[in-house]
Every structure is written in C-alpha cells, then in structure tokens.
Amino acid sequence: MRSLIRVELTRLRWRRAVLLLLVASVVVPAVIAVAMIWDTRPPSADELTRIDELVAQERESPVVQEQLQDCLDHPENWGFDQSTTDLQTQCEESTLPQPEWFGSYTPLDLREQLQYGDGLGVVTVLTLLLMLAGTTFVGHDWVSGSMSNQLLFEPRRGRIWAAKALVVTLVSLVVSVVVSSAYWLTLWLVARSRDLGSSSDLLGDCLEFGLRGALFATAAALAGFALTMLFRSTVATIGVLFALSVGGGLLIALLGLDGQWQPGPNLEAIVKNGTTYWDYDTERKLSALHGVVYYGVLVVGTAVASVISFGRRDVP
Amino acid sequence: MTDLVIETSGLRKEFISRRSKRVAVQSLDLAVPAGGVHGFLGPNGSGKTTTIRMLLGLARATRGEMRLFGQPVPQQLPDVIGRVGAVVESPKFSPNFSGRQNLQLLARSIGVPDSRVSTAVETVGLTGRDRDRYKSYSLGMKQRLAIAATLLKEPSLLILDEPTNGLDPAGIREIRDTIRTLGESGVTVLLSSHILAEVQQVCTSATIIGNGRLLASGTVDELLGDGTSYRVAVPDAEAAASALTAAGLVSASDPAGGLRVETDDPAAITRTLAGAGIWLSELTPLRPDLETFFLQLTAGDNLGTSGQEEVR
User: Fold this and answer.
1) A137 within 8 A of A129, measured Cβ to Cβ
2) Domain regions of chain B by residue span
3) What letter does residue B133 receive in the DSSP assignment?
4) Of A142, A196, A255, B252, whose CA is between 20 and 30 Å from A248?
5) What is the SS3 assignment for B193-239?
6) Cβ within 8 Å of residue A251, ≥6 positions away
7) Of the CATH numbers 2.60.40.10, 3.30.420.40, 3.40.50.300, 3.40.50.280, which one belongs to the domain with range B4-224?
8) How large is the average pLDDT for residues B156-182?
9) Does B81 touch chain A (CB under 8 A)?
10) Does B62 touch chain A (CB under 8 A)?
11) How many Cα atoms occupy the beta-carbon half-sphere of B42 within 13 Å?
C-alpha cells in the first residue's frame, strides 16, 4: 500500500493541470489577502498631504465656486433658505470637496471579517479549486485509459481507490490548512501592526475559522475525486456539480424547503461554528453539526457509491 | 498431464443494455498449456478481447470459471498477476508523461527498481525516445512501450492482444521474433490476433473462437492436419490422370495447373507416373493454411458480429 501511495503522489506531482490548480489555491487567497490589506490600510502622511492638496485644488475650481455661489444666491435650491443660520458654512459643507471624499478608510476589523468578510470567499475558492484538482487528478486516468494499465499491475481495486483517495485528501488537507492558516495569520499580524484588535483569542478564532474551512475544502476535494471515479469523466463530474450547484438550490426552493437545506447556510454553519438563516420573517439558528451532517451525508454517500461502482464495473 | 497456464470453463459474458442483451462470450472452455506461443484466433468482435479482459480482472464474467497458473481468478488474481504481462487492445498510457515516466509509475507500484525500466526500454528499442512525451509517439512506438510495460514483471505468461497493430513491416517482424524468442525461452505467450498468417508463423498451438464460442483448439499441426494433398505438374495431365486412376489414386485438375492428387503416400505418385513413362516436373504438398482452415471452419456462420439476444 505504501508503494501505491508513493506512486500516486508522484503521479499527482507530475500532472501539470493538478499542479496549476494547487498553485491557484495558493495564489488566489494570497491575492485576496493582499487586496484586503491594501484596502484597509490607513492613509500615510504623504497621502494625507496629497489629499489636502487635492481638496484645496478642487475647491478652487470654477465649477465648485459656481456651485458655492449658487448655493449662497439660491439656498432654496440646496435645501436651505435665507433664514438659515450660518449659510456660508452650510453651503461650503454642501458644495466644497471634503478630505474624506478622496481618502475613505475602513480599518481592518478581524471580528467583522470572521462574520461578513472575505474569509468565506477564501473557503469557497479553496473548495472549488481543490475539488477540481481531485477531479482532474483521476479524470485523466479514465480519459487516457491508463486506469486499466494500473489494474494490470495491482488488481485489488479497493487499494487503488484508497491510495488515490488518500493522496487527494492528504494533499488537499495540507494545501488548504497551510493557505487558510497563512491567510488568517497574515491578517492578524497586519491588524496587530496597525494596533487594531489582535488578542490571542481573536487569533484562535481566526485559525479555527481557517481550519474549519480547510476541512470543508478537503472533503470537497475527496467528493470531487469520488464523483469522478463514479462517472469516469472529468467533464461529466463538472457537469453534474454545475447542475447541482445551479439546480440544487432552485429545487430546494421549489420544494418549499427552508434555508436549513440550502448549501450556502450549511457551509456558513460549518466554518462559522453555527449561523442563522431566515425562514420567511423569522431568523433561525443553524448549528455546525447540522452542516457537517448535511455535507457529510453527501460526501460519504458519494464515496460509498464510488467504491462499489469501481469495484464492480468493467474497466475500459 | 500438461500443466495448464490458462483454463476457462463454461465462461460467459453478457453485456446488457436497456434494449438488448449482447452475448460476447458463451460457454468458452479454453486451455492453454505452459510454454510456447498459443494463438487465440477469431475475427473482430468474436470475443477474444473480452475473454482476455475477464482473465485479467478488467471485466467480470457473467458465468463460468477461470484459472491462471491453477489459481481461480479473479479471486486469486493478486497472487498471480505478478507473473502475467499483458497488452490489452491499444496501449493505454498517460499522454502527457514521457514513456519512461509511465513505465516508472507502473514499476514502482509493484516495487520494481527503475533499473528494470531502462532494461525494458532498451529491449523494445525505445532508448533515446523514452523521455519524450507519450503523446508524441507513433502507434508503433506506443505498442513497443506497451510491450516494455509487460516486461517489467519478467512474466511467465504474456498475453498480447493484437500486438502488431500499427507497426511497420520491420516492426512486425521484430515483434514476431521477440514473441518467438520468448516462447522458446519458456514464457507462455497467448497471442490474440485476427491476422491468421501472423499467428501461423509463430504459434505452436491455437484456439479459434467465433461468436464467443470455441470452434477448434489444438496444436497447429493438429488443426491443419498432415497434408494429404499434392499438386503434380506433368507434360500430359490427361495421361497422368488415367495412370493415377488406374493405380487407385484419386486425382483432379488443379486450378493452378496440373493435377491435385489425394494420398498419404507421395511415393506412390512418382512410382505410378514413372511406371507409365510420365516424368513429373513438380510434386508439391498442399497443406491448408490457418486462414483457409479458419474460413472452412466458419463457413456459413455470421462470425464477427456478436450474438444479439433481444430482451423480452
């Protein structure tokens, strides 16, 4: 079994499409993190000076001055009247450019990030890319027909399935844990460097979020692999996943089932350790356990069907 | 009693779809003795590949028993697969890996050192191209790589399904010589082919199937018989025919010219004609080839089109 696992690791390492997907799994979250850090950076002294200069310049522009004059001459057009006290100040505030117009700044709030930020987006990206990696890895064996060649050397199909599944799971787990942890650790370090909230409890919450997301993405990669072993085609698997993602939610809504059966809230429940969803006008709680059971049944069901199918069906 | 390397008994394979049930192999009893090259003959679609795929665990038999080296398969296949090298249908490797990488993955899966990969590559004449991507190979090179893969195990049984497909004449001859050498070295080779002339050149025994059924089996000599017919070329065929008939020999005019004489004793022909003062210029034994035998055997059958049974 060890030699089989080593062989599958080598096969994965030599498969360029899989490597590209793994690289994308690192690069895309990194880009998201960089964008987040950039967008939340406090303005520097240089930027503040530049903004002040820009404001002064804009205030002197003829258009702005015309507007100011118009406000003073016809205050009713600007929501004021002649009796308004301190009309000069009111009109200046309404018409003259303000510094915040040129340098809006939202500080990096990790608590908010955990609840509403891009963390869920990173989990979604990892999930999609690792699922594709699991699918592509084994889909190639079926498309090229090399699966039958492998079975001529190791006819115990269960071992072949297990070795490939183990490699997909291990690689996905390592990549997703490293990427998620690096993502949150980076944000936490940045928050600390900016003297924003950076307690060890907060770091723990961030890493827990990342770990939950990583486990979810790993399970998705395993499901993608199992589904491809079932359908024996990358294209068929992607087609089914696309149909499920589009049609699944629609079908659940058409059947009148409430939000607890939708994929999105269940994913949120897993990574956020519980969430809420709206049942008409009532907000209801959804536990992490519910999410785990929801997706667990899908993953285990797919894996069992995949193992049985691979063990029994003729291999082309 | 001869040891049998491959045995099947009552083997049957059905492919069932919604509309029909196709019987690819039915009640096939196959016995391949150890050593030598055994031809497995039949037209396209006669069930050869399906039988091989069942023996190798790639397809499940609907019914029947199979044994490799006396071990029941697929139950004990893991115990004997290390002694079996096989090329089934067209070669199947990862197109983006080099030939060497493909072989390395297969070798490492059974703990074979990379040095044997080099040996196998050298044996099939792929040295120098083994680091090129598989998808850049010609069909002939792909066949060679597939044969190299079978050699990784140093097999006692080699199952080759149409191994010369796509090879040029020189390649065909090379593979044929390799097969013959392997057969002589003690490896049992099961050579599946529908090119009967090819099989006749290298095989010591053969099994012929059609429509998934066994039609004939035995050594090539047994299948073709001893050859009891001779073509005789003489200046006066009419006089020769009269002399032969008078001596109790059955003769008829041969489409290729001269006479065709049926006898177990060719000396009787020369003796009779010499006694009549007729000097023959040619006496050629007419031995049926496998192709002729096969066509005679299957005359009237709609072979090559697999059995269809409508589901009722």
Assistant:
1) no
2) 4-224, 229-287
3) B
4) A142
5) ECCHHHHHHHCCEEEEEECCEEEEEEEHHHHHCCCCEEEEECCCHHH
6) none
7) 3.40.50.300
8) 83
9) yes
10) no
11) 31
- Ordered alpha helix ranges (H), chain A: 2-14, 16-39, 45-59, 62-73, 87-95, 99-102, 110-116, 119-144, 146-153, 157-193, 200-231, 234-243, 249-254, 263-271, 288-312
The mean pLDDT values, 10 residues at a time, for chain A of 316 residues are 89 92 95 89 82 86 88 84 79 83 76 83 93 94 90 93 96 96 92 81 90 95 95 91 84 80 87 84 87 93 95 90
- SS3 (DSSP) at A139: helix
Which residue from B105, B110, B153 is facing A10, i.e. has the nearest CB?
Answer: B105
Number of Cβ atoms within 10 Å of the Cβ of B66: 24
Mutation for testing the A interface, residue in B51, B93, B109 having most A CBs under 10 Å: B109
User: How many beta carbons lie within 10 A of that of residue B82, not counting itself?
Assistant: 16
- Domain ranges for chain A: 2-40+108-312, 45-102
* Chain A residues touching residue B58 (CB < 8 angstroms): 148, 151-152, 314-315
Let me know: does A191 contact A150? Beta carbons within 8 Å: no
Backbone angles phi, psi at A68, to 5 degrees: -65, -45
Cα(A65)–Cα(A61) distance, integer angstroms: 6
B26 within 8 A of A280, measured Cβ to Cβ = no
Q: What is the pLDDT of residue A52?
A: 84
What is the token pair recorded at A111? 């608590």
The domain defined by B229-287 folds into Alpha-Beta Plaits (3.30.70)
Which candidate, A115, A47, A61, places its Cα nearest to that of A273?
A: A115
Cβ distance of B109 and A14 shorter than 8 Å: no
Three-class DSSP category at B132: coil
> What is the model's pTM?
0.80
Cα distance between residue A155 and residue A199, in whole Å:
54
